Amino acid sequence: MGVLKKKFRSVKKLPDWIFVLPALLMKFIFKCFFRFELIDKNGSVERARGYIGMAWHNRLLFFAPAFPRRIRKRSVAVVSASRDGQYVSDFIKCFGIGSLRGSSSKKGVNALLGAIHAIKEGKNVVFTPDGPRGPRYVLKPGPVMLASKTGAPVVPLAINASRYWSVKSWDGFQIPKPFAKLTMIIGDPIMVPPDLDADGIEKWRKIIEDSMNTINQD
Question: Is residue 31 situated within a structural domain?
Answer without folding.
Answer: no
